[in-house]
Design goal:
- It is a single chain.
- Helix content is about 50%, strand content about 15%.
- The protein has twelve helices and eight strands.
- It has helices at about 25-35, 40-55, 65-80, 85-95, 115-125, 130-140, 170-195, 210-215, 235-245, 250-260, 260-280, 290-305; strands at about 10-15, 20-25, 60-65, 100-105, 130, 200-205, 225-230, 280-285.
- It has a five-stranded parallel beta sheet, sandwiched between helices.
Amino acid sequence: MPVDLVQVDPRILVLDRTGSQFPFSRGVMATSLLATGVPTEEAYRLASLVQARLLHHGRTEIHADEVIGVAHTTLVEHAISPEVADRWMAWRDARRSGRPIVIVVGGAPGVGKSTIATRLAVRLGITRVVPTDAIRETLRLVVPSIALPELHASTAELFDHPVLAGDITDSGFERFERLCDGVGDATAAVASRLANDKRSVILEGVHLRPGEMTSQLARHPARPIVVERLVVVDRSRHHGQNLAQRGGPEASDAGRHLDRFEVIRAIQAHLTRSARAAGIATVDARTATDLTQKLVDEVTAQLSAPISDAVVTPTAS
């Protein structure tokens, strides 16, 4: 069910802090509620209740702060969980704090990173999603193969040795780590520039070494709130199905990835070990139904932490 941002009600005029006037939008209210993790239908139900309560007040103009109060009361009384109201208010505080939010979604090829990143962008209202594949393609135009040969091969092709007893030779991982160094540094530079402008972003890709973005942005003057997750697919069969079902522009990659499936599974195991060492939580793509709530809770927890501890301390789950 798509979110309609133009469902405005001219009977309810909202005044912001500058004195500007705009009509209440049920679609905008529903969109803001998606960050709490509620289903889209539930978000619209609650937004409709907020709209009805505002109309019941019988006033043609209402200040934005009053709308927030009415919305919070409505959520407390009618949401499916009492946590929805608190989470909505906390997320509003996070977005209005001025601190940029950086969500990092890493994982091996075929685990569903792009799908999860897109879903999070809609739910969290973060309009910028930066895939590391795009950064790698840009770097290929300016960095010659003699300087960084790993940049000019696919991730799976870095492992040119046979799979032995379910493992991959160390040289493949050395090349993979060099690729992560190059692409990761460029991605961190993009995130840093966005943080300078107080802009939030979702980063996704196989080249995001767990914990690296947290470390690179730890001393940024904008004090960005960084939350990282490593996406995995625990069952090998499900992972293979994900790769086989790729369509559109990625369809040509599906066969090549399936041919190197053992390599891709080894990459996932390698990233999982790195995540465990860095204290970054992993999430199975097939059971990530509460991921939005967990990310919002982690962001708001960092927001309320003392300034000396405000830089994210990764926690495993």
